[in-house]
TrEMBL record, chain A:
Residues 189-217 form the ChsH2 rubredoxin-like zinc ribbon domain. Residues 64-128, 223-288 form the ChsH2 C-terminal OB-fold domain. Keywords: DNA-binding. Pfam families: OB_ChsH2_C (PF01796), zf-ChsH2 (PF12172). This is DNA-binding protein. It comes from the Bacteria. GO terms for molecular function: DNA binding. It comes from Nocardioides anomalus.
From TrEMBL, chain B:
SUPFAM superfamilies: Thiolase-like (SSF53901). InterPro entries: Thiolase-like. It comes from Nocardioides anomalus. It comes from the Bacteria. Transmembrane segments: none annotated. This is Lipid-transfer protein. GO terms for molecular function: acyltransferase activity.
């Protein structure tokens, strides 16, 4: 049995990238259903065009059109496609040298089984119906008949409206695990308890517990139950709205130093006007109803003032 | 140039690390082993450098919390690379060359099993025309393997021979995730997975961490009578586009080998996460037939991301400490299909 708590988590973000004149022209071509290659100083036609010549390091400026048919130069079978790949059923990845080009392009090849693909086979681009100017405008390659005319004539280049930027969405799925010490912390929270750990060497008490004392690197061992009362050491008033915000600003986010702990942790201070929150203010956890508890710090809805006199500055000045 | 040696090495490799992606709980005992090997405390370490990746961990600044395992009072001289341990070691070696420090402890860690490793690694590719179609690591290696088979540079039997030897050698490696050789014919009878690759041609997804200790001159001699002196160290990189590379070759590995003096190397620990890549490396480095390759079992039997390259250097250093060899080589790779390569040649005192 696992000694740690874990939960699935998805990290997603969009990269917005400017393309520049070379890739912008290549991607603009794809939008129009045309494959643009770049001629390098050694006379080769490379697809996608390199931004700079690999030998002279000059910007690529000599562009040609190549055919959307070509020949497989290497391939591999993808028995278990992963999310985001061009096809969601088993397929081949292939290096395809398009007719008129001298270097291969990597893309998916839609065939039913490894028996349906071989090095040297003729393939053609299957274009996506609605094209936007990125590499996925090529939906994939598909088998093509062995045509007699192999090298397509390079027509004079039509005018291409270059793509100036693309958005690349990235989404990664993880099974995120807490450390054994953090797992204890979260399990205790599900029982309404706060548990820290004490460094056996320097005696400091950390909450949430950490696997090693960040001061001296000693593994933390002793569990320390902590009360749910503490002192505001420092705070900020959040006035700015942001994506995913759960409370309407203004509200107070504060570091709370629990009594007996040596490190403050971040939580909300509510039940008091934001402008009245102050350093040294004594606070106590406001727990959600027990029926809503899980293995999460959100079991504590927020901290609220206790009404006690403020703590003496000397009691928390080492923790700012 | 200052004489710098590898004087400490600790590792953990496992299929599935039941702990946090910060790996702090994994690093603490590794550092303890390094302190025991050297007789040092953390205050004897002049420079720290780590290797890890936020993409692998699924959290930002993944290296920051790992510093807990060191402790920072008094403050430490610390750095980080988004690369394998071997490159963290390279930075530490340079740091020692500057004369600023005499000792270094370098470490790396990663929980590959937290995500889908072969997919995550698509993010290290060219971001305009490759990453958006998510070419996974295994597929890219498959394209490379096929290119060599079609060109007649290697065949499936040669690949199976590499796998069988690795699996057999791994039986003596307590950290190996996959072990137990059988025969080349038996391996060839197994089903093809990512045609032309079989599962045993691909490194297993591995969690783990490792640490290496470096010391200069007398500081190294204080630790051991037989330090593994770094005789030469070099790394090079090939273009990121797969289409413009001859996939049957690895020019960067060849150049790194050329920049080092490989004469007399008896043992070579090569970081080859796919069986055919060992064949590429062996050829590019020009290793003679009598060079013993990957006696640890190599990356085919366990390949913890960000540690596996450095582990090759540690394993090669260990052969010198034990007196088993007088001159060894550790190699690390990074990027798709052997794009980046580092070679480290070590020797015993004369």
């Amino acid at each position: 049995m696992a000694r740690t708590l874990s939960a699935p988590v998805t990290v997603a973000f969009d990269y917005t990238r400017s393309t520049g004149p070379v890739l912008g022209r290549f991607l603009g071509g794809l939008r129009e259903g045309v494959v643009v290659g770049g001629r390098t100083s050694d006379g080769r036609v490379v697809v996608p065009p390199p931004e700079f010549d690999p030998v002279t390091h000059e910007p690529t400026q000599d562009f040609v059109e190549v055919a959307d048919t070509g020949t497989v130069t290497s391939w591999t079978w993808v028995p278990e496609p992963v999310k985001g790949q061009p096809l969601d059923r088993p397929f081949a990845f292939a290096l395809v040298t398009l007719d008129g080009a001298d270097a291969p392009l990597l893309h998916a090849l839609d065939v039913a089984s490894p028996a349906d693909v071989h090095t040297g086979m003729r393939v053609r681009i299957r274009w996506r119906e609605e094209r936007t100017g990125d590499i996925t405008d090529i939906a994939c390659f598909e088998p093509a008949p062995d045509a007699a005319e192999v090298a397509a004539p390079r027509e004079p280049l039509r005018t291409i409206d270059p793509v100036t930027g693309i958005v690349v969405p990235v989404e990664l799925d993880y099974l995120y695990a807490a450390s054994p010490e953090e797992s204890l912390f979260y399990t205790s929270l599900s029982q309404g308890k706060l548990v820290g750990q004490r460094c056996p060497r320097c005696g400091k008490v950390y909450i949430p517990p950490r696997s090693a004392c960040p001061s001296d690197g000693t593994p933390t061992t002793d569990e320390v139950p902590l009360p749910d009362t503490g002192t505001v050491t420092t705070f900020c008033i959040v006035n700015v709205p942001f994506l995913g915000q759960r409370i309407t600003p203004p509200y107070v986010s504060a570091y709370v130093l629990l009594d007996g702990a040596d490190i403050a942790f971040l939580h909300l201070i509510l039940d008091i006007p934001a402008e009245e929150v102050r350093m040294g203010m004594r606070v106590k956890a406001v727990w959600k109803p027990e029926s809503e508890w899980g293995t999460t710090i959100e079991n504590i809805s927020h901290f609220a003032p206790t009404g006690e006199p403020d703590a003496d500055y000397d009691t928390y000045k080492q923790h700012l | 140039m200052r004489d710098v040696a590898v004087v400490g090495f600790a590792q953990r490799q496992m299929q599935d690390f039941d702990g946090s992606p910060t790996c702090v709980e994994l690093l603490v005992p590794l550092f303890a082993e390094c302190y025991e090997q050297t007789g040092w405390t953390r205050r004897d370490v002049g420079f720290w450098c780590s290797g890890s990746s936020d993409y692998l961990a699924g959290r930002s600044f993944s290296f920051v919390q790992a510093v807990d395992a060191i402790g920072v009072i008094p403050p430490v001289n610390e750095s980080h690379v988004e690369m394998d341990l071997a490159w963290a070691m390279y930075e530490a070696w340079l740091k020692i060359q500057t004369g600023e420090v005499d000792t270094a402890l370098v470490y790396a860690f990663g929980k590959s099993s937290a995500g889908v490793l072969r997919r995550t690694l698509s993010l290290q590719l060219e971001p305009y025309t490759m990453t958006p179609i998510w070419p996974d690591t295994v597929s890219l290696a498959g394209l490379q393997a096929r290119a060599g088979i079609d060109a007649g540079v290697w065949d499936e039997r040669a690949m199976a021979e590499v796998a069988n030897r690795s699996l057999t050698d791994a039986e003596k490696n307590e950290y190996a995730v996959r072990k137990g050789g059988s025969s080349v014919d038996e391996l060839l009878a197994r089903p093809v997975y990512a045609d032309p690759l079989r599962k045993h041609d691909c490194a297993p997804v591995t969690d783990g961490a490792a640490a290496l200790v470096l010391a200069a001159g007398d500081r190294a001699r204080e630790v051991t009578d037989r330090p593994a002196w770094i005789r030469s160290l070099a790394h090079f990189v090939d273009p990121m586009s797969m289409g413009t590379r001859d996939l049957t070759r690895s020019p960067s590995a060849q150049r790194a080998g050329e920049a080092c003096d490989l004469d007399g190397v008896e043992v070579a620990e090569l970081h080859a996460p796919f069986s055919h890549q060992e064949l590429v490396l062996r050829r590019e480095l020009g290793l003679a037939d009598d060079v013993r390759v990957n006696p640890s079992g190599g990356a085919l039997t366990s390949n913890p991301m960000f540690s596996a390259g450095g582990i090759r250097i540690g394993e090669a250093a260990r052969r010198i400490w034990s007196g088993e060899a007088a001159r060894t080589l550790g190699h690390a790779t990074s990027g798709p299909a052997l794009q980046q390569n580092l070679v480290c040649v070590m020797g015993a005192d004369h």
